[in-house]
Specification:
The protein is built from five helices and no strands. 30% of the residues are buried. The protein is an all-alpha fold.
C-alpha cells in the first residue's frame, strides 16, 4: 500500500509565517548593527547598499534555516516561501513609509537566500528538544 500524499496547499501552508517573523527580526537587528557600524566606525554612507543587501541575506537565510530545521521537509520550497513572505512584508512597509516598492533584484536575493537557508536547515541535525516529538501535521 502506498502512502497518501498531502496536497501542495497543505504542504506549503501558512505555518511558515512564524519563521518569516523571526527572519524579519534578524533582518532588523542586522540592519541596526550595520547602520551603527557605518555611522560610528566608517563615518561614511558609501557602503549602505552593501550592508542593506547583507542584512537581507542574513535575515532570509536565518528565518528559512529555522523553518527547515524545525519543519524537516521541503526545505527548498518552504525557504523560498519564507523569503518571498519577508520580501512582501518589507515591500509593504516600504510603500507605507517611503512610497516606493523594493526592487526585483531584492526579491531574487530574498528568495535565493531563503531557499539556501531552507536546504541548510533540513540537512542539519534535528534539535534535541524536538527529537521525541511527532512531526508537525502542517
Amino acid at each position: 500500500m502506498h502512502r497518501r500524499r498531502k496536497s501542495s496547499k497543505k504542504r506549503l501552508s501558512l505555518g511558515v509565517l512564524p519563521y518569516a517573523a523571526v527572519g524579519l527580526a534578524v533582518l532588523a537587528a542586522a540592519a541596526a548593527l550595520s547602520a551603527a557600524l557605518t555611522f560610528f566606525v566608517l563615518g561614511s554612507s558609501e557602503y549602505i547598499g552593501f550592508f542593506a543587501a547583507a542584512s537581507e541575506v542574513v535575515g532570509a537565510c536565518s528565518g528559512a534555516m529555522l523553518c527547515g530545521k524545525y519543519r524537516r521537509r521541503h526545505g527548498l520550497a518552504e525557504g523560498a516561501v519564507v523569503g518571498a513572505l519577508m520580501y512582501t512584508v518589507v515591500s509593504v512597509i516600504g510603500i507605507i513609509l517611503f512610497g516606493s516598492l523594493k526592487s526585483i533584484p531584492s526579491l531574487i536575493r530574498y528568495v535565493l537566500a531563503g531557499a539556501c537557508g531552507g536546504v541548510r536547515g533540513v540537512n542539519s541535525p534535528r534539535p534535541k528538544e524536538v527529537r521525541n516529538l511527532p512531526r508537525c501535521p502542517l
